[in-house]
Amino acid sequence: MKLISSALLAAAALTFGFAAHAQDANLKKTLIERIPQLEKIDEIRSTPMPGLYEVRVGTDLFYSDAKGNYLIQGELIDTKARRNLTEDRITKLTEVQFKDLPLQDAITIVHGKGERKIAVFEDPNCGYCKRFEKDMQKVDNVTVYLFLYPILSPDSAEKSRNIWCAKDKAAAWHDMMLRDKAPASVSCDVTALQRNLALGKKHKITGTPTLIFEDNSRVPGAISSAEVEKHLNAAKR
Predict the structure, then answer these.
(1) Which residue has the higher pLDDT, 142 or 17?
(2) Which residues form the domain of 68?
(3) pLDDT at residue 88 in the model
(4) Which of 93, 126, 157 is the last residue of a domain?
């Protein structure tokens, strides 16, 4: 009886899997026919709310009923758990794996022994970045991988180029951010900056500074040195 029961359970699971796949395929087909802009649907999956499906296009999330008659753009909140399920999902989708960061495209700045690590996306025209950099001078024993991320203005691109092309990149960066001393105009290969912009776009980095820690946690905005210490210590556990 045990063998028969196991076989029946396996068959039922397989049937359910096929049915779920067919449901997802039908929903995808319907949505694309009705809303051609959704032609690049990457994934459809059920949500904790019965009858509601998540429709993912890249890292953009929509919600639909089972038949595709209604499409919702908004946030799904679990009121019992008090969690924003949409926000949690986007955080997971846009997570940056620290070990996969192209560190060759970053400026390396070492404080003390540099045993702890952090990656930061910054724009040289960002006022919050300047405040963050001043606070970072209080943080010791850390290696900072600075990804120049010129998104604020055409002038940001020019300043980033001059910093990247400087003989001493770290010194040029600190002159700009700590002393308001603009870097000298120079030229070199800046394809690294283009790759930084593509990387940021891929992971939906829309503001500066954005911090990435070794445990892959991501923090947007200029946080204090005390907060940086807290995240650095947590990432090392």
Answers:
(1) 142
(2) 2-93
(3) 92
(4) 93
Show the tokens assigned to 136: 């970072």
Q: Is residue 180 within 8 Å of 198, Cβ to Cβ?
A: no
The answer to whether residue 15 scores a pLDDT higher than 80 is: no
What distance lies between CA 153 and its chain's CA centroid? Answer: 21
Distance CA 108, CA 192 (A): 14
- Does 111 share its domain with 36? no
121 and 224 share one domain: yes
Contact by Cβ (8 Å): 218, 211: yes
The string of pLDDT tens digits covering residues 50-102 is 999 999 998 899 999 999 999 999 999 999 999 999 999 988 888 889 999 99
Question: Number of structural domains, the chain?
Answer: 2
Query: Interior CA angle at 145 toward 189 and 142, to 5°?
Result: 150
Residue 18's pLDDT is: 45
Domain finish residue from 68, 93, 118: 93
Can you read off the two tokens belonging to residue 123? 């724009």
The mean predicted confidence, pLDDT, of the chain is 91
The reply to whether 80 and 105 lie within a common domain is no
What would the mean pLDDT of 221-231 be, rounded to a whole number? 95
Q: Are 140 and 166 in contact (CB under 8 A)?
A: no
- Gyration radius (Cα) of the chain, Å: 23
Is-contact 176 182, C-beta < 8 A? Answer: yes
Residue 15 sits at the vertex; the CA angle it makes with 13 and 18, to the nearest 5 degrees, is 110
Contacts for 73 with CB less than 8 Å, ≥ 6 apart: 62, 63
| Residue 53 sits in the same domain as residue 158 | no
Same domain, 79 and 116: no
